[in-house]
Design a protein that fits this description.
Elements: H1 8-19, E1 22-24, H2 32-39, H3 46-66, E2 70-72, H4 79-85, E3 92-96, H5 99-108, H6 119-125, E4 135-139, H7 144-154
Parallel strand pairs: 1-2, 3-4
Helix pairs in contact: 1-7
Amino acid sequence: MGVSGSGKSTVAATVAERLGWDFAEGDAMHPQANVDKMHAGTPLTDEDRWPWLEVVAGWVREHLGSGTPGVVTCSALKRSYRDVLRAPGVVFVHVAGSADLIGGRMAQRTGHFMPTSLLASQLATLEVPGPDEAHITVAADRTPDEEADEVVERLGLTPVR
C-alpha cells in the first residue's frame, strides 16, 4: 500500500517472485472510467474507489479461501479502504517516502496513467496505518531489492531461492 509512485508495485512484485506467490497489480483492476479520470488529473472520490476496492478484496478473498498465498498492490490510502481489504492473514506493507522522493520518481516514469499533479491529493488522503492494524512500514528510499528483503525478513517469510 502507499501513494502512487512510492514503489509499491515494484517491491510487491519482487516479494511475490522471491516467495513464489501469486502477484496482482491493483491498478490493473481499476475500471476504465477511473483510469480516464486519473489520467485527466482528477482525483478519485470515495464513490469511484468503492467498486474497485471490492474487486481487489475479491482477489484477496479468493486467495485466502483457496489457501493460495499472494501479494496484491492497492493504494489503500484510508483506513476505511483497508477495512474493505482486511481479513485474517492479511498484512499491509506501507511503502512510505517523502513527497520530494516520490514526486521525483513520478516525474521520471513513463506509461503510467497517474500524473505527478495528483501526488498532493494522494498524500492529503493518506491515513497511515494505526497500531491496531496488521502492517509494517518500509522506507521507500532504498533499492526495491533492499525493500523487498526487509519485507520478507520482517514478516518472517521464507524465500524459495
